[in-house]
Structure formats: structure tokens, C-alpha cells
Amino acid sequence: MLLFPMTISTAENHPNFTPSPEHNPSFEEQTPWKRITLGAGCFWCVEAIFEQVEGIRNVRSGYMGGTLRNPTYREVCTGRTGHAEVVDLEYQPKVIALRDILEIFLGTHDPTTLNRQGADVGTQYRSAVFYYDEEQFQIAKNLVKSLQAEKIYQDPIVTEIKPATEFYVAENYHQEYFKLHGEEPYCRMVVRPKVEKFQKRYAQFRKK
Question: What is the pTM of this model?
């Protein structure tokens, strides 16, 4: 007969025990992050929006879809390299679904204007989704098809949906541009209205 309760000595019982990541994996380790690359005109606008979305990290402005290796901003702006200004990001599928990301993307720019967003004109400003697997392709294609069927837009959606190619990160001065230069005329007149539109229309997706 035991007069006292039996205590089993384990590492967890030790007062100085600290769980290792292997012992107690974090939420992020249990659910891998995925990647998507989006073009919607000037990348300053797109970056400023998605930096505020819950479940998204590593938002970077850059270039994709062209032929020239390691293009510069000046070269992309000529429209002759074939690149689009894009934002590359990672998202946590258990926090935000790709369909929600794409709804924000399509809802905060005009996906019906070919190679143009407002006063920004050229193939570098085209609307584009660059996907990394078949599932992403199907989600993007089905969403566009659904929006077309519901006649959400008066004109056809011209957003291209293509496999991702090599991503070239833009020059340092383009990163977090709106955050650092929010009072400049372009930011006040072009970027800020899009950010405010996101904040109002998609408030449930904003970071807390």
C-alpha cells in the first residue's frame, strides 16, 4: 500500500525545463507557409496593403515575368524587359485562405484595364497572379470565373494567371515605400486611397 502519491520524475517536472521547438512545435511550424506573387500596378500600393493583412509575412516588392536577368527599376520602367511590378509574399493558409487574399487583391485595383492602373501605363503595370502549384492556379481561375459570372465588374477581367518565374527583389528604396514616404504626393494621391479602401472594405483581415 502506498502512503504517498507516486511522483514520476520527468524533464517536464523540472523547474528549469524549457520546451524545445521539437517538443512543443509552434503554430507556424505545424502549418507551413505558402507563397504567392501578385501584380496590380505600382508595387508600392500592393505592398502597403498586404503588409497590413493578418497571416501574411515577408512582403517584398520586385519584378517577375520578364526575360532580362537581374533587371533594374529603370530597365523595367521601359516596358521592354517583359517584367511586371509585383509583390511577393508568404501566407499562412490556416489564418487566411488564398481565395481571401485574391479577393483583396482583385478588390483593391482595377483588374479590367489591360497594362494600366490609373495614370501608370505599360506592361510592367499589368494585373497578374503568379502561382506556385496547381491548387493555387485552380483557386485563382475559379475566383475570376465566379466574379465574371456574377458580373462584379462591367468589363472583362484581364488579370493574367501564370506559373511563377524567377522573382527579382526590387532595390532597397522601394521596400516599405508607403510606410517610409507616406506624405509624398504619389503616396497621398494614389497609394493611400487604395490602402484606405482595403481598411474599410476588408477590415476583418487587418492585423490586430
Answer: 0.85
